[in-house]
Design goal:
The structure is a single chain. The chain is an alpha/beta fold. The protein has one domain. The protein is 21% helix and 16% strand. It has five helices and eleven strands; from the N terminus they run E-E-E-H-E-E-H-E-E-E-E-H-H-H-E-E. Helix 1 packs across helix 5. The longest helix is centred in the middle third of the chain and has 19 residues. The chain is globular, with a radius of gyration of 17 Å. The two termini are 31 Å apart. This is Lipoprotein. Keywords: Lipoprotein. InterPro entries: DUF3152.
Length: 261
Amino acid sequence: MLLGAALLVGVDLVRGGHDAVVPTRQVASTPAMADSPEPTAEPSPAALPSPSVTPETVYQMDGAFPASGPGTWVYAKTQGDVLGSAGGIRRFRVAAEKNVAGTELDAFTSLVDETLGDERSWIAGRQYRLQRVPSGSAYQFTIYLATGETTRRLCGAGGMDTRLDGVSYTSCRLPGRVVINLNRWRMSVPDYVNGKIDLHTYRQYVINHEVGHELGRFHEACPGKGKPAPVMQQQTYGLKGCTANSWPYVDGKRYTGPPVA
C-alpha cells in the first residue's frame, strides 16, 4: 500500500494532525518567554496507536532514521539575522530531538532560516519580522524537529491525532510550539513524490504551513484544478487537483484559497 488513503482523507480541524491546530483568530502580540523546560512527550490515552496496526514504510527518500526518541532536545546555539523589513519582531528557537540532532539540526536550522527569510514567505506581508535566537534568550515560539512517536505524543497531549493507518504521519502546531514530524521531513508525501517534486520543496511547505498557524492563519482549500495550492491548504493529505506550492506570497501578493469551515 502506498498510502493512497492519504490522498482521500479529508481530515478536519477537529481530528487534528498535520495542519490541524486551530490558532486564535486574532494575532495578538505574544509576550516573550524566558527559556522554559523542555516540553514533555507524555501521550494522552486517546493518542496512543492501536497495537494491532503494522504500518508500511512509504517514500523513504533520505536514508534510515529513528521512529522514536527520548523527547529531549538540542537547540541551535547561534542567533540568526532579523528576517523581514517591517513589523514587530517575533523571536523563535529551533531544536531537534536529541537522538537525531547530530545529523539533522544544522540542516534543519539552515532550511528554517532560508524558508522564513525568503521574500515569498510570511515576512513579505510586512506585518512582522522574525528572528531565530539561541536557548536562554527570550522568544515567542519554538520550531521542533521531532521523531514520529514524539510528534504523536506532543500533538496528542494537545488533543490532536497525527496518525494515518496507525503510524505518526503529520506535523502540528501547539501554542508556542511548531512540531515538524521527522517522518515527513525525511519521507515527504505521495503527491509530492509522484509529481517528482523535490524534498526541499515539501520541507519549505511544511515549515511555512505550521509557522502560518503560529502566526494566526487557518486552513484553506484548493481554489481550482491546476492552480497552485495555498500554503495553508493541507497539502500533506493531498493536493486535491492543485499543484504544489510552498509559499504564502506568489508574485508579490498574498495567495489564498477558500476558507475551510
